Amino acid sequence: MKRKPSVYRPPAAKAVRRFSLSGTPEMKCQKMLRAINDYVDGVLDPAICEGFESHLAGCNPCQIVVDNVRQTITLYKAGKPYPMPVGCSRRLHRLIRERWKAKPE
Amino acid sequence: MVMAVDVDLDLVRRARAGEFEAFDRLVARHERRVYNLARRILRRPEDAEDVVQETFLSAMQHLAGFREEAAFPTWLLRIATNHALKILRKRRGLRTVPFEESRGRDESAGGPIPPPAYIASWREDAERVADRPEIRRLLDRALAELDPKHRAIFLLRDVEGLSTEDAARALGITVANAKVRLLRARLKLRERLTRSLGDPSTRVEGHAHDHDHDHGHGPSSGASRDAARVPGPRAPGRPIRRRFHP
User: Fold this and answer.
1) In this complex, do A75 and B120 lie within 8 Å of one another by their Cβ atoms?
2) What pTM does this model have?
3) Closest CA to B116 of A39, A9, A29
4) ipTM above 0.85, yes or no
5) Residues of A in contact with B245 (CB under 8 A)
């Protein structure tokens, strides 16, 4: 069964300036890309954020990329840690005990 | 409720006063986290074990120097990162460039960020699939394919939850450089995972990133070539809609 894809939905666009009106398409793209991190982390400068969201509202590929980045981070955060081998832990605690005894007060 | 930070601080103070059991408990509380970071950066279990041992021996030696304004685990992860980087440096030998930035190697200065090539919504939510063994293998593989410097910043920042400043300090790089490395890491992982987890019917075309963008993808990257060569099936009535930029 195919689920409806979850795509990030930005808040309704307000009448704000576009993310970038100057430069070549490549420059706009680079600016957008460079702002993605701060946007995803919620630390994008509010003035830029408005422009970013305004751009997102009209740009499906950008919405998907932002959502993909969020999902990527979520997936890694949710991943189970490697179990630490019992022997590794035992050797560590033994080593610590030996060195503790030997260390100068 | 006693906060973990308070428990750590109490144990640190007791260990400083000479109580071995307090230090042993600190080790028990944080060994798995240190092991995991090292294992993910270096991949070999025996290297991870070396890092864990070196980290706690250093911590024991320098406990008096631990300034309490930083969280104890952050301090530990910084030490662990240092030891992991030493092993990476050894592996690379003397012929290659050092892991840390050096003059002219500051990534924050320039170099274009490769644009996303495969853009599609994921078939399922990340949280629902995280526990599946095949997803775990995919995550490990994608992480292993990253350059170690990108892997390290991603792990510190996004998996361990350090601030960008703390992660930068742990790696001995500037905050600006850390930000660019993190961006590259996230985008590379996004690309890799989306190729496996993306729903082809939702696929859209990104910005071509060459000057003549009316003529399709530029030949600059293998990823773009792949994307152009293997277009996923699209649902009827859902043509490739927009370029990455309007």
Assistant:
1) no
2) 0.78
3) A29
4) no
5) 25, 28-29, 32, 59, 62
Whether A78 has its CB under 8 Å from any CB of chain B: the answer is: yes
Q: Which two tokens stand for residue A44?
A: 């994008």
Q: Rounded CA gap, B59 and B64, in Å?
A: 9
Residues of B whose CB is below 8 A from A94: none
Per-residue pLDDT at B95 exceeds 60: no
One-character DSSP codes across B119-146? B--BSS-HHHHTT-HHHHHHHHHHHHHS
In chain A, which residues have their Cβ closer than 8 Å to the Cβ of B143? 76
Please give the pLDDT value at position A30. Answer: 66
Pairwise CB contact (< 8 Å): A100 & B56: no
CB spacing of B202 vs A25 below 8 angstroms: no
Share of chain A above pLDDT 70, in %: 70
Option in A65, A76, A91 nearest B119 (CB):
A65
A47: confidence class by pLDDT, cuts 50, 70, 90: confident
DSSP category for residue B204: B
Q: Does B91 touch chain A (CB under 8 A)?
A: no
pLDDT exceeds 90 at position A16? no
B49 touches chain A (CB under 8 A): yes
Contact yes or no for A75 and B126 at CB 8 A: yes
Helix axis angle, B4-16 relative to B72-92, nearest 10°?
80
Decide: B114 and A34 in contact? Cβ < 8 Å.
no
Distance from CA of A19 to the nearest CA of B (A): 10
B237 pLDDT exceeds 70? no
Tokens of B191: 């690309």
DSSP string, A4-61: PP----PPPPPS---S--SS-HHHHHHHHHHHHHHHHTT-S-HHHHHHHHHHHHT-HH
Higher pLDDT, A46 or A8: A46
Nearest to B184, CA basis, from B150, B216, B213: B150
Question: What pLDDT is recorded for position B54?
Answer: 98
